[in-house]
Structure to design on (999 residues):
């Protein structure tokens, strides 16, 4: 239990993916790397969850995919936020903030 | 939601591309991971190994992505359909039996449903047809149900004033035979429906060409315009539009008048009756609109929005109560009432159709029970396969889904075959459409019917597939794999199978009883003596002007009749000839109030049918003379008035006396009509219908019918040979006396009886064939269950025989098991029949619903058929070779 990395709570991955692609089109690898780096290696995304999540979000119409060439000139599948995704992200951010604030409140009062 | 569906569809359509893309995406990720590892200083081999560990199972990720696509359900479905198709193809015997059974079950159901749909459910082709009603008078009083009597012009005017319930009210003075004269050519009889101008706008129909009536044309002296039916326009005017605006000459029995053709109605329009040829405006004088005496109108109305039929009828009841007080001729009025147009048209056929629908529903259930049994039997063979699938991790939901998909596959294939069968049956089923609707509606495979087929197919698939599917998927893995090896199942399955067969037997027995009752009543009806002989008789409709009141014209008329008759009787091959005002088996022939001499005064008058005839009529119809004499030359215009009555009349009014020589007169006791002497009594004929008993009847000689509104307009000829062979000679004989006489309405009298029993025949034939079908399917079911039981117990039989059991004892063992099932089924079926056939009462003629001979007959038939179905498996059981049976263990 000394491992500082933690598993993502249910549903958080979607939020993180949406937030990441909101900054611009990313491919799956870049998304996973970025989440890991920005969270200073605390959050680690398993490929087994990342790709099904990406496909699920695409099906819901929150992100859309297109093929482009990567930094090292290879074909990669890029995901970007759609208008519906933008709304979803905003909504999820609000509810996440409310959730964490509420949880923090409870933890502090004890 | 929509984008989601779109996404799934896209994935489905570009399946391979999606798979390739997924592969490329994951490979890209994997390679970047390897590169990162290499950059971190790992050797290439180690980098790949670490990347694999980090990645986890590539196949699982792919599977989960596919799941995320939302197409997993469809994948499983395609897979299941594949399995199912393979199974169907691999067991041709099973598949053929199953598909044939389903085809018959679903086909029969679909055929009858399309009929019910066309007749009872599909709205009539008029604007907002649910609001259209027909209004009747009811003089029948309470008790025997409603009487549907015609309305009076006064009544029509009163209904028209009920603007609080009706948007519009229209009247039809229908079924008038006119003669359409042709300059130089042959005149023909046409059927006129005289209608108020607003009828067509009320129905919401438009002419094919030309225009409809205007309100101005609906006034006395302005009504000389005519609309033609499509059929008349095509046949008589060659479909030439130039007839519009031209005049045609119509003889309406009073005068010959010119009518201007203003429009042609569309091909399928026929209102209110199917044989309508022309429509002319029916203009009423104010005097007529105030009269409540003569009942000859059909009145149609459109209900106001938000006015229910119930509300309208209660307002009409108030009106009827007033009418009864106000008008002497409405004293017997019980009520006015409206009936929805669709119901008015289908009143007589509804019960028969619902009976047929019940019949096919039974067939479908029987077919499903049979299939469930087939599948149960087959499930034994499949227990290992299913056990294996379960052992390899298929969930029980997934297994049920697979098995139900297979059933649905069978069901839908059966449904497609059933559509074909139903399609073929349309030619025959057409005849069950009520005659007055036959030109307005047709049978077709429309979307509603196809939807119904789909529903029935899927519903029956679940019905016959669920039990076997549940049984299989819930069976214990261990026993499944073990028992499967020995190819046997527990006694439980057999019980379910036997219960299904008991149900099948009961249902088909119920159907057979119903069919038997209908058949018996049909035979009864056929054996009813109509009171006349129909063979070798030809009928020619004859066009006669309204009876003149003027004695001089009347005499001229009589002479024309007599000359025609003389001509006809002179033809070779003619035995007898005479005219009548009304043939039997049609219309009662007009009621007449009369008073028998010496009877007690009767405020409501004594009533009898009346017919006007010429000499020769009774002879041609071969109606027997019971007493007295027929009319002869002595009953001329100046002779003392003479009448002939029927037996019922003699029995009713002169019981235990000789009626010949007694006198009666038209009207009540105080009427000024002359006394008429009864000169003869003839046998009864069925005036209206074979199923209705004959009523009292008076015949008048045409020579003395001055002032009688009935005219003898049907020529009856008894021939020596084929009656229709005389038609040309007859036409010539008639036209040589009156060249303008239409002579196109000729038919053999046999047709009249056929028309009377035809609906019963078609219905009986249909229910009969349905019940035979049920019998066949049910006996296949019995055979299946017995054969299956024997095959399951081959070893047991072998052991019994090896231990010294007599083969006969084995035979009896199997037969007794079969007999038990059959007896149970028969008992259940008979009890159900005794309770349910009461609902058929109104369809039966002189047969009681619980007719013991039918119940006993049908049960015996069933037991014999069922035992035959058991004998083959029983013999197979008895002939088991013990050595082989035991070795097979």
């Amino acid at each position: 239990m000394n491992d500082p990395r933690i598993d993502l709570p249910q549903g958080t991955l979607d939020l993180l993916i949406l937030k990441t692609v909101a900054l611009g089109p990313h491919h799956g690898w870049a998304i996973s790397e970025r989440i890991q780096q920005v969270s200073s290696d605390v959050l680690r995304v398993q490929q087994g969850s990342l790709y099904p999540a990406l496909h699920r979000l695409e099906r819901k119409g929150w992100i859309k995919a297109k093929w482009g060439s990567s930094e090292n000139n290879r074909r990669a599948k890029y995901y970007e936020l759609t208008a519906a995704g933008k709304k979803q992200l905003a909504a999820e951010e609000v509810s996440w903030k409310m959730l964490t604030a509420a949880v923090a409140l409870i933890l502090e009062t004890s | 939601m929509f984008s989601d569906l779109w996404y799934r569809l896209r994935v489905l359509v570009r399946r391979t591309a999606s798979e390739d893309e997924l592969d490329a995406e994951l490979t890209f990720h994997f390679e970047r991971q390897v590169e990162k590892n290499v950059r971190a200083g790992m050797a290439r081999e180690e980098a790949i190994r670490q990347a694999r560990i980090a990645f986890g199972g590539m196949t699982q990720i792919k599977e989960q992505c596919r799941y995320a696509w939302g197409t997993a359900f469809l994948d499983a479905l395609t897979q299941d359909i594949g399995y199912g198709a393979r199974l169907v193809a691999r067991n041709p015997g099973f598949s053929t039996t199953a598909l044939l059974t389903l085809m018959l079950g679903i086909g029969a159901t679909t055929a009858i449903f399309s009929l019910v749909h066309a007749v009872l459910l599909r709205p009539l082709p008029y604007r907002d047809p649910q609001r259209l009603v027909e209004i009747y008078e009811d003089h029948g009083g309470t008790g025997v149900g409603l009487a549907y009597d015609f309305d009076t012009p006064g009544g029509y005017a009163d209904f028209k004033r009920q603007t609080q319930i009706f948007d519009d009210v229209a009247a039809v003075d229908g079924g008038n035979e006119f003669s359409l004269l042709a300059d130089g050519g042959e005149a023909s009889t046409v059927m006129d429906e005289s209608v108020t101008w607003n009828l067509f706008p009320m129905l919401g129909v438009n002419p094919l060409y030309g225009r409809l009536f205007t309100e101005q044309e609906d006034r006395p002296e302005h009504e000389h315009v005519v609309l033609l039916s499509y059929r008349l326009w095509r046949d008589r005017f060659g479909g030439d539009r130039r007839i519009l605006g031209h005049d045609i000459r119509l003889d309406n029995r009073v005068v010959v008048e010119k009518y201007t053709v203003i429009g042609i109605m569309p091909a399928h329009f026929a209102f209110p009756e199917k044989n309508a040829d022309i429509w002319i405006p029916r203009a009423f004088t104010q005097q007529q609109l105030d009269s409540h005496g003569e009942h000859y109108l059909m009145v149609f109305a459109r209900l106001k929005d938000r006015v229910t039929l119930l509300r309208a009828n209660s307002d009409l009841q108030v009106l009827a109560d007033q009418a009864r007080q106000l008008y002497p001729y409405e004293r017997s009025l019980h009520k006015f009432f409206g009936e929805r147009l669709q119901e008015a048209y289908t009143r007589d056929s509804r019960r028969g159709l619902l009976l047929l629908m019940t019949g096919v529903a039974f067939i479908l259930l029987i077919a499903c029970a049979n299939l469930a049994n087939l599948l149960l039997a087959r499930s034994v063979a499949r227990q290992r396969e299913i056990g294996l699938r379960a052992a390899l991790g298929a969930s029980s939901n997934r297994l049920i889904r697979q098995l139900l998909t297979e059933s649905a596959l069978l069901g839908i294939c059966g449904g497609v075959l059933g559509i074909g069968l139903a399609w073929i049956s349309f030619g025959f089923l057409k005849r069950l459409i009520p005659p007055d609707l036959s030109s307005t509606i047709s049978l077709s495979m429309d979307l509603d019917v196809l939807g119904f087929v789909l529903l029935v197919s899927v519903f029956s698939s679940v019905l016959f597939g669920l039990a076997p599917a549940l049984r299989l998927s819930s069976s214990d893995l261990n026993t499944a794999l073990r028992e499967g090896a020995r190819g046997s199942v527990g006694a439980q399955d057999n019980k379910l199978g036997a219960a299904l067969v008991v149900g099948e037997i009961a249902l088909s027995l119920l159907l057979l009883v119903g069919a038997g009752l209908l058949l018996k009543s049909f035979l009864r009806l056929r054996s009813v003596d109509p009171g006349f002989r129909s063979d070798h008789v030809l009928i020619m409709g004859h066009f006669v002007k309204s009876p003149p009141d003027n004695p001089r014209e009347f005499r001229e008329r009589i002479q024309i009749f007599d000359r025609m008759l003389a001509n006809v009787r002179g033809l070779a091959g003619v035995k007898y000839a005479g005219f009548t005002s009304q043939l039997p088996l049609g219309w009662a022939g007009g009621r007449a109030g009369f008073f028998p001499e010496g009877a007690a005064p009767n405020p409501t008058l004594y009533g009898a049918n009346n017919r006007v005839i010429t000499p020769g009529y009774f002879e041609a119809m071969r109606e027997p003379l019971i007493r007295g004499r027929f009319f002869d030359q002595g009953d001329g215009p100046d002779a003392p008035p003479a009448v002939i009555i029927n037996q019922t009349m003699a029995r009713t009014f002169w019981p235990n006396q000789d009626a010949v020589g007694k006198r009666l007169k038209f009207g009540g006791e105080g009427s000024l009509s002359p006394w008429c002497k009864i000169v003869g009594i003839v046998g009864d004929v069925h005036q209206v219908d074979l199923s209705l008993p004959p009523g009292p009847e008076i015949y008048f000689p045409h020579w003395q019918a001055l002032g009688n509104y009935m005219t003898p307009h049907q020529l009856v000829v008894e021939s020596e040979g084929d009656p229709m062979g005389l038609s040309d000679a007859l036409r010539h004989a008639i036209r040589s006396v009156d060249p303008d006489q239409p002579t196109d309405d000729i038919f053999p009298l046999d047709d009249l009886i056929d028309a009377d029993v035809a609906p019963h025949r078609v219905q009986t034939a249909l229910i009969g064939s349905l019940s035979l079908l049920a019998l066949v399917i049910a006996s296949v079911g019995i055979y299946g269950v017995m054969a299956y039981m024997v095959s399951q117990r081959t070893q047991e039989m072998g052991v019994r025989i090896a231990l010294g059991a007599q083969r006969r004892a084995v035979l009896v063992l199997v037969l007794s098991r079969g007999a038990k099932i059959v007896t149970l089924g028969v008992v259940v079926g008979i009890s159900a029949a005794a309770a349910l056939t009461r609902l058929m009462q109104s369809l039966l003629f002189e047969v009681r619903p619980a007719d013991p001979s039918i119940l006993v007959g049908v049960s015996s038939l069933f037991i014999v058929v069922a035992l035959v179905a058991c004998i083959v498996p029983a013999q197979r059981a008895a002939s088991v070779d013990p050595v082989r049976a035991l070795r097979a263990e």
About this structure: The CA atoms of residues 60 and 77 of chain A lie 17 Å apart. Chain A touches chain B through 22 residues (CB under 8 Å). The radius of gyration of chain A is 15 Å.
